[in-house]
Amino acid sequence: MTHRHILFYKPYGVLTQFTDETGAGRPTLKDFIPFPDVYAAGRLDLDSEGLLLLTSDGTLQHRVTDPRFGHPRTYWVQVEGVATEDAVRRLSAGVDIQGHITLPAQARLLIPPPDVPPRQPPIRYRASIPTSWIELTLTEGRNRQVRRMTAAVGFPTLRLIRVAIGPLTFAGLAPGGYRLISTAEAKLLTSKSLRLRKPGARLAHPTR
Questions:
Q1: What is the mean pLDDT of residues 116-127?
Q2: pLDDT number for residue 179
Q3: Using an 8 Å Cβ cutoff, are 140 and 100 in contact?
Q4: Four-CA torsion 137, 113, 156, 163, nearest 10 degrees
Q5: Within a domain: 206
Q6: For residue 54, what are the CA distances in angstroms to 5, 29, 32?
Q7: Under DSSP, is residue 170 helix (H, G, I), strand (E, B) or coil?
Q8: 3-state class of 198 per DSSP?
Q9: Which residue among 6, 60, 193, 203 is least crowded, i.e. fewest CB within 10 A of its CB?
Q10: 3-state DSSP helix/strand/coil percent for the chain, to nearest 5?
Q11: pLDDT tens for each residue of 168-195
């Protein structure tokens, strides 16, 4: 059987499902993905943006979402305030979130800030409080983990964009855009040698 695999750049405010069960008429994957019988491998919150993998391969979907395999996911996080190197070190070492110490991660300041498409609607802006960007790569995915981690080190998240799932990135995609990937690309996500992205490695920017 030939499976279909899709990388999708989920915009802000889009549900990571094909129907809005509340009946509120919110945008869903159905508004962007024209293919039947594909399912999201993992989720992005309504107020998060970025890379989402959809696949018709149930085995791959399970492998990507099962926490035992610890697939690295990379995020660009715009936070309130000027993030410090101390905050980055704490994020890397693990922080306490509701009694759980997060696993070691990779974190670094993004200077200069990444060139990303503007969000609609824009983030709240206060002239008296600057913002900054952090790149954070995790191998676990607890509920709203990134937001809770940055808040724990004193820098609340204003904008959250997932830019990579393992070696697959959002390069070349605009918000709302997608691309089909080959089975060979999809198999990269099941590699036993999959590891955290090397510190300092630059990701290509998306398409505006």
A1: 88
A2: 96
A3: no
A4: -30
A5: no
A6: 6, 10, 12
A7: coil
A8: coil
A9: 193
A10: 20, 25, 55
A11: 999 999 999 999 999 889 888 877 655 5
Tokens of 52: 């989402």
Domain count, the chain: 1
Is the model's pLDDT at 199 over the cut of 50?
Answer: no
- Asked if the structure places residue 208 within a domain, the reply is no
Looking at residue 204, what is its pLDDT?
67
pTM, two decimal places: 0.91
Tally of CB atoms within 10 A around 104: 13
Classify residue 196: in a domain, yes or no. no
Pairing of strands 131-138, 73-80: antiparallel
The sign one gets for the Cα dihedral 167, 18, 47, 89 is negative
Which residues are annotated as catalytic? Answer: 45
Q: How far apart are the first and last CA of the chain?
A: 35
- DSSP 8-state secondary structure symbol assigned to residue 175: T
Q: Which residue has the tokens 């992005």?
A: 44
**Mind listing the pLDDT tens digit for each residue in 1-30?**
789 999 999 999 999 999 999 989 899 999
Q: Which two tokens stand for residue 89?
A: 């070190």
Q: Is residue 45 included in any domain, yes or no?
A: yes
What is the radius of gyration, based on Cα positions, of the chain? Answer: 17
Structural domain span for residue 133: 5-190
